[in-house]
Structure formats: C-alpha cells, structure tokens
Amino acid sequence: VDPAREHRIVALDQQVVNRIAAGEVIHRPVSALKEMLENSLDAGSSSISVQAKGGGLKLLQIHDNGHGISREDFPKVCERFATSKLREYGDLEHIETFGFRGEALASISHVAHVTITSMTEGATCAYRACYADGQLTAARAGEEAEPKACAGTRGTQIVVEDMFYNVLARRNAMKSGAEEYAKLLQVMQAYAIDNAGVAMSCKKQGEASSDLHTLKEHSTVDIIRSIYGSALAKELVPLKGEEATIGLQVCGQLSNANFSAKKLTFHLFINKRLVESSVLRRTLEEVYAAYLPKGGHPFVYLSIRLPPESLDVNVHPTKREVNFLHKEEVLAAVQQFARDALISENTSRTFFTQA
Ligand code: ADP
Ligand code: MG
C-alpha cells in the first residue's frame, strides 16, 4: 500500500451512503412498521392488517384499504425525498399528515426487498412492482423492471422481506424474532387505541389466530379491553381538557385508584403521532403517587393536540422526539386534567356508596 494514498479523502459510493442513511431511519422491523402504518393512515384507510414472520425480519406485510398509489407514481414510491404530502418548506408549519419527508419507503428499500401492490379508486386493475435500493427492479432475472397489472381491490399491500440482508451486523444484533414481534405488536396496539374507527389486526404469518383484532365499530374502551382485559377496562376514567391560550387539547383514558400494575403503561400520541416523553411520564407518576400504593403504576393513554406551528416534529428523521413550545404550560395542564379526572371519579364513587 502506498502510504501517501492510504489517507486520501474519497467520496463514498452512493449506495454506501444510502445504506448508512437508511440504517438511521430504519433501526429494526418496528421502525419500518411504524412508517408503513402511518402511510396507511395517511391514505385514509379504515382497515389495516399486519402479518410478520421471524419478528418481521423474514417478512413484514401490511395491507390497507386506503386511497392507493396510481400506476404513474409507482416509479417514485421508493425514491428518496419524493412525497405526495409536502410541496414546499412553508407547508411544514401546518402539515397534518404523518409523512412528509418521502424517506421511509426509500430507506426500507435500501435494507430489504420490497414488493408493492396497489389499486386506486375506480382503476380497472391493481399494479404490482418490486423495489431495491430506491428503484423499481425486476421480480425475476430477465423480466422488466416495471409495474405489472394484476387483480386487486382498492388499497395497498406492501411486503418487506429479508430485512437487513445487506447489513449483516444489524441483522445479527437482533437476536430474537420473538422480541421483535413483541415490539411490532406493541406499536399496533398503541395505534389501534388511538385510531378507534379503523379496524386493525396483527398476527404471525401462518397462525390462525390474531394477537390483535379490533373492529371498526369498537370504541376506545372496547379496544383497550380487547388488548388488556376487563380488569383494566372497568377501572378506566376518561380525561378531557383544553387550554385555549396555547391551543392545547387533551383527551384520553386513565386507570383509577383501584388499578395498580408493576409497570407503567403509557401510550402518548401528539397530533396522532406515537411519541415518547419522559417529562410527561414523570408528571403522571407524580399525580398517581397520591392514589396508588408504593410500587404501583397506572395505565395511561393520552391523545394531545397542539397547533402544528408550536411543535417541531422535524427534529429527527424517525420523528420520534417531539420538541414543543410552551412545555411548562403543557405539563401543568396535563397534570391538572389528570387530577381532575381522578378526583371526579373518586367523588362519584363516594357518592355512589353513600347513596
Ligand atoms: P412520505 O410518507 O413522507 O411521503 P414515504 O416514503 O413513507 O414518504 O411514502 C412515499 C409516498 O408513497 C407517499 O407520499 C405516498 O404518496 C405513497 N404511499 C406510501 N404508502 C402508501 C399507502 N399505504 N397508500 C397510499 N400511498 C402510499
Ligand atoms: Mg411515510
């Protein structure tokens, strides 16, 4: 090796760049599922079903009845930064859809084999195409890399196979399919709770029974009952509140003082997006400290609405962290709403037993 050449700077191959970038968006099967699930919701679906094999690493399939993808758009679906949802930067301030970066499917296609079948309303047939590294690819050697007409119904089916086949270190880091499947199911359950009116199901491919199965007519409490059982469902109190000065609206379901679990279950949605917030988590645990025995934890489902312009969802491609303006006000308001919900529950109970 020529020592002078060894340390020269060389631009990375585009494929390497894409694969690295994809790995930052798609950490594991559940990150792919969340993106595809949000796409199905963005498409206005009222029914979404998911099947997985090997925890989603071997196969991850999602089927929806949304508005579908037209034949002309097929070549662009997996192209990076190609989207039907955002037209100009200013739109970011009032965006209502989950997606907007046009990055998800592109990223998935860089770390897995993707097959999309889709049919739009009123189209005469569905189309199917395969993707690799952001582009249409032939289903089999010798065939043409273009969408093929096939039978179908309105909606989209996406099949993702052999995730991380080309990123072996990542694939090997994922030890158990069971663990990955548990994460897939958790995300499906959370979105099912926040999307009453949309039927959702999740199962392992080849198994007869579903691990999640909700119907369109199920209420939020019905859905929580079907996931966690009636021991929790009968101890739920609704939460509702509004703080007009910052445009905050909160609704949700919380367990009352009769329910206590070893671990906190906290499903938090901000503007319909599943997110995490350790500060809100702490705030809620504080509220419940007055109600639950030591070591006991509640179940909390919160759906928070804030004006999009007071949220920065663009912090990271995964959009998992949300920075919000007026953080102190939001925390104080949520704490108050939770207290109110629990207190009104308590007084109505006392009243009930006295009567
Ligand atoms: P984004 O959601 O940010 O636009 P994606 O990579 O997730 O980017 O999707 C790219 C495009 O593919 C979307 O803008 C949308 O037009 C289309 N698409 C993806 N999934 C679906 C689906 N399930 N139904 C209809 N259209 C879809
Ligand atoms: Mg998307």
UniProtKB/TrEMBL annotation:
Q: Which residues form a coiled coil?
A: none
DNA mismatch repair protein S5 domain: residues covered? 224-343
Q: Where in the cell is it found?
A: Nucleus
The similarity comment for this entry is: Belongs to the DNA mismatch repair MutL/HexB family.
Q: What is this protein called?
A: DNA mismatch repair protein S5 domain-containing protein
**Record lineage:** Eukaryota, Haptista, Haptophyta, Prymnesiophyceae, Prymnesiales
The shown range, given as first to last of full length, is 49 to 403 of 806
